Amino acid sequence: MAFVQYGGGRLVVATANPQLVFIHGIGGLRSAEMERRQWLGALATGVRAAGQAGLVSALTQGWLADVRFADYSDLLNAKGAQGGAPGAELDHFDERVLSGLLEAMVDELVEQFPPETGTRDARIIGQARHHLDGLSSGSQAQGVGEFARRLVWVTTTLLQLPGLRQTAQWANGQAFALQLSQVARYLNRNGGKASVGSAIRSRVLEGLDPARPLVVVSHSLGTVVAYEALHEYEGPVALWVTLGSPLALGGVVLQRLVPQPPSCPERVGAWHNFWDRNDVVVGRPRLADWIAPSSAGVKAQTAPVKSAGVWTHTATKYLEHAEVAGPIVEALLP
Questions:
Q1: What angle do CA 151, 229, 35 make, to 5 degrees?
Q2: Backbone conformation region of residue 220, classed left if phi is above 0, alpha if psi is from -120 to 50, else beta
Q3: Tens-digit pLDDT profile for residues 14-47
Q4: Which end of the chain has less Cβ packing within 10 Å, N or C?
Q5: What's the CATH code of the domain at 259?
Q6: Contact present, 13 and 3 (Cβ < 8 Å)
Q7: Which of the two residues, 322 and 179, has the higher pLDDT score?
Q8: Are 112 and 200 members of one domain?
């Protein structure tokens, strides 16, 4: 038996470390160790803001928990997918999901920049809406690749918004469209395509010890992956945190989750969901209404955060908030 001293001079008995797993969303190929350090650094910033500066060293040095970044990016970035746009590999299912995602994003942007304001941003969003209407108008009859071309028109137009162009993660509309298509590829369970989602969930659960406490921090598409993976997981989950989650996008994601009807995974002890009003990927604060509680009554507890800038859909921006980081570090304490 060993003792570890945390901030404030407190001595606690150190048993087997809890597990902290970060689950990422869409994007290009990642370096698991670099991402792990970045997410931990952002979490440390939030822990300080929460008044728990004495726990930062224990967190970042690995004394408080065994921290793992569950990297599945290679499973969604195969065959040179870093460049170009999605094309003939998209089936009808993928196209419906992508259309729905973009429609939800444009709807959120319209709320932020109403057409009647007449601003440049509002005009750009109006153009994106026009292209989106064309995207949904039966492009199948116009040949292979037509949907992909129209899709890039929408994403290229959206990237004319200064906030997205300056701070988002995409160099151009093709990259934007390609990475959005990862959501559809994960959710597609038609034939052999189901193996992608299965492989991703296996990667996330790989190496976890069901006998030790687990805290899961998931972001964006990672919240969808976590939802399904935690329904398969047999160990206790002290806390599940969802950041910028599209889980409540009804016609796009919610109705395609497995298992159905949607419910909080049974082994989850607490579920905290955070959303930013400026995060256009988020399905707004509806998780608790649209996803049923577990048999123990656990359901999503949703709270807003406020980040600077138009593009707030990054995990690190969320983790830097005290209200996000505080419960995470508390859940890791013995």
A1: 70
A2: left
A3: 457 999 999 999 988 999 999 999 999 999 999 9
A4: N
A5: 3.40.50.1820
A6: yes
A7: 322
A8: no
